[in-house]
Amino acid sequence: MTYTSRAWIRHGYHLNSRYWQQWKLQRPPLAPYLQHCLLGICLGDAHVFRSSRHAALKFQQGAHQYEFIQYLFILFQQWRWMPTLGIRYTSTGDIKSYWFKTFSHPEFTPYYTALYPVGHTSRQIPTMCLHRLGLSPIVLAYWIICDGGLHRDGRTLTLHTQCWTYTQQQELVSLFYTFYGWHVQCRRHKNKYWVLEIPAPYSDACARYISPWILPSFAYKVPRETSTRYL
Q1: Dihedral, CA atoms, 33, 181, 47, 109, nearest 10 degrees?
Q2: Helix runs in the chain, H state only
Q3: What is the pTM of this model?
């Protein structure tokens, strides 16, 4: 999607003008729910980048996940200029994906700093944010929305965490034990990379924690509960 010069004029001022830059800085802090949501997506596939002095976010989802990207679009409506979702097309004219970006803002900068403390080419576990917010059920739910996948048993859940190194994944294993007491395992996947696996004995607890925060279109990622309680 491209925008005409008129699209960048609001209330008679260009969006890069001092008027709108001051308006941005008067935004209230990110609501707690948004903070946890954003951290969960950062553990998954969110794109956080520095734009001028502060950071901005870019979200993109395949055409089949329109409900999720539309939900995020509404969730971050006070933090974006884009009036509609951007659309990317395949060479045959079919919709390939939907996307949108936020404007840059100091509220997003701590997430960028936590992910890239030594530069954009070296992605790290956002430890500072996790220490501040914790691996809450909301964080976990959005992480699973981005990276989760159930095994055929409907209870064992894999987090496709190949974007993290083996050492970094061991940090995440420790976080699961710290916040939930779960013995999450780091396993080799397809003899190519490492992923995290939440074993079946924790499926009941996992389902209880994340179900209130999972969108209907992602219900298939929630572990199936059983009548036997392991925890």
Answers
A1: 60
A2: 18-25, 32-43, 66-75, 109-115, 127-133, 137-147, 166-180, 203-210
A3: 0.87
